[in-house]
Design goal:
The chain has 161 residues and is of the alpha+beta class. Helices cover 34% and strands 21% of the residues.
Amino acid sequence: MDEILELLRQNARLSAEDISAMTKKSVDEVKAAIKKLEDDGVILKYAAIVNPEKDKGAKDKVVAEIQIQVQPQREHGFDAIADRIYRFPQVKSLYLMSGGYDLKVIIEGDNLKDVALFVSEKLSTLEGVRSTKTNFVLKTYKENDIVYVADERDRREGVQA
């Protein structure tokens, strides 16, 4: 299963036949393993990874990381406030963190004003939110093992006479 999962992580478009040939398992075994991974919630979704610099629709979007300090709720800890935050459509990722703040939220807006309004009107007004700190993403070089910038340097060796 681990081998099949790793192959799908690298390329979710591999067919069961391709994976069968790569793992020396039968096609039926591969299909059964993939179905089990999906049924068990190990595989949640298959998605295309799109370069935001080349996607005209996403190119003008504003991405921000927001660090949040919260007051955990009795008997629910951080889960109750996290549940309220991740339901906002602007929220792309949400993490419980160690260190100087409790939650890290990655959000996306159409412009700076959208992000500012989300933080001031939606996020900071939630019960239990003590403080927020917003940082804007200026450029993405690498994310989830995907390099977004082309290496166009001249790698030829210099010749001396």
